Amino acid sequence: MQLQELFEKQQQLDTYIENKRGIENNEVFEEKLLAFMVEAGELANEVRSFKFWSSKAPSEKEIILEEYVDGLHFLASIGNTLEVQPQSDSVDTEVQEASKKEITSAFLEIFGTVSLLRIEPSPAVFGSLFSAYIELAGLLGYSWEEVTAAYQEKNKENYSRQENGY
């Protein structure tokens, strides 16, 4: 899936939710920021890179990917709220083995950039956040193809949830 298509699919879902809930996209910007942070926190919790006190292994790869994609939904929604158009239509995640420290550092960069985006909601800051989140996928061992396949499945599930009173 190309980046433009992902943003378009997210815009369609957002519009569906807005119409169903009677809200305007720009009314819930801060809620989207917090929702993204919560999802990124849930992802970090499943990855467990920061849990120096625990010897428990990370969650299964599928669970981590699902949490990652939950965050991607909100991140694309934030980009659409800011009317940011992807600069490129292709994404290349560099799948790599990363240390716990590298992954923890990536999470901290993401959280810091979300805080900056709240203060300075600009395309440049959003671009930094989006790039950091895409890089995180590679650090976690996921290709863009895996991410977008999981995004499409979760997108369908999100429509279903809305239809069933989620």
From TrEMBL:
InterPro entries: dUTPase/dCTP_pyrophosphatase (IPR014871), UCP030140 (IPR016947). Transmembrane segments: none annotated. Coiled coil: none annotated. SUPFAM superfamilies: all-alpha NTP pyrophosphatases. This is Dimeric dUTPase, all-alpha-NTP-PPase (MazG) superfamily. It comes from Alkalicoccus daliensis.
